[in-house]
Amino acid sequence: MTRLTRRALGLALAAASLCTALLPAQAQERTFKLALQNPKGHPLEIGASKFAELVAARSGGRFKVSVFPGGTLGGDAPNVSALQGGTIDFVQLNSGILASQIKDFEVFDFPFMFANAKEADAVVDGPFGQKLHARLLDKGIVGLAFVELGFRNITNSRKAISTVDDIAGLKLRVIPNAINIDWVKALGANPTPMAFPEVYAGLEQKAIDGQENPLSVILANKFYEVQKYLTVTNHQYNPQSLIMSRKVWDSLTDADRKLIKDAAVEASAFQRKVNRDKSADDLDELKRAGMTVSELSPAEQAKLRDKLKPVVEKHGAAIAATVAELQAELAKLRK
Q: Concatenated DSSP letters for 13-37?
């Protein structure tokens, strides 16, 4: 090879390296981490995997989302901190937990706020839900879409619950926030705030008598192995938020942001359908697993609502404008 040829080759290689370094953001391959608390096979994990699939397909394989289910990257609070720091890219969690960032998110933990899933969809997908998600931006969080955990029910290892008074005295695990602590106290039970990854062990070791969660969570996490009694109360509906690190979001092009946002919205609709289609089967499977299932009579259900109204009033006072806005939305839907 002549000196001139070697020089030309060197210049060509340098130019190629420079072009690679200057490739636009959309041409770079990236792997993202998505954390959630429920295990593989739960509708939330299925929805997260659908999101990963859509992102990979629409990016032509440039983007990969690695899903970490079952609390393998820690509990919700550490996950949110890591997301704000940019070390976790996506988190899926109960929307009410975001009250630690924006207090108005507490409204999603109010007992008996939504009568059915159709109401919840209209609220979270409409201006109300979108406005709340938008407020997270100043906290280093991008709200992408709402998925669902669903309606919550009470389990315990001590006794069947057929009346509201039967709940008194039980030591129940709750999501660590004030409203959940207060509604359990209002029923005469003993609230025990606990991160979700610790719940099974707490039940197994009798540190707590029971917990409350949707049927899909009770089944997927095998709580039936350490809980005998299930009471269908549907006392709370949990939307979940799929959120993204703003640090990561800001590093993307507008086109790639749209790609991720669109994938999140499509995956959320898919996840809700999966969750609702499984609900009846989940109850039957819990019965086959040996759980004793009871339901409150209409009179007892009304009593439960009445006991929890003061809790809603207490916590609603601090976010009165948001509560009024939500109630106005619900009033329109119920006409």
A: HHHHHHHHHT--GGGS-EEEEEE-S
- Give CA–CA dist 168/162, Å, rounded: 12
The residue type of 276 is: R
Q: What are the structural domain ranges in the chain?
A: 30-150+238-280, 153-236+282-334
Whats the size of the chain, residue-wise?
335
Whether 324 has a pLDDT exceeding 90, the answer reads: yes
328 Rama class: left (phi>0) / alpha (psi -120 to 50) / beta: alpha
Q: Are 95 and 108 spatial neighbours (Cβ–Cβ below 8 Å)?
A: yes
* Torsion from C-alpha of 141, 315, 113, 325, nearest 10 degrees: -70
The tokens describing 6, both together, are: 């070697």
Could you tell me the two tokens for 67?
């899903």
User: In CATH, which superfamily holds the domain spanning 30-150+238-280?
Assistant: Bacterial extracellular solute-binding protein, family 7 (3.40.190.170)
Q: Which fold has domain 153-236+282-334?
A: D-Maltodextrin-Binding Protein; domain 2 (3.40.190)
Q: For residue 204, which of 231, 191, 190, 223 has the smallest C-alpha distance?
A: 223
Residue that the structure tokens 């009568």 belong to: 115
Q: Which two tokens stand for residue 139?
A: 């906290």
Spatial distance between the Cα atoms of 238 and 94, rounded to a whole number of angstroms: 6
Distances from the Cα of 111 to the Cαs of 59, 88, 300, in angstroms? 40, 31, 15
Instruction: Assign 241 to helix, strand or coil.
Output: strand
pTM above 0.85, yes or no: yes
Cα angle 305, 310, 314; round to 5: 135
pLDDT at 310 over 60: yes
pLDDT band of 28, cuts 50, 70, 90: confident
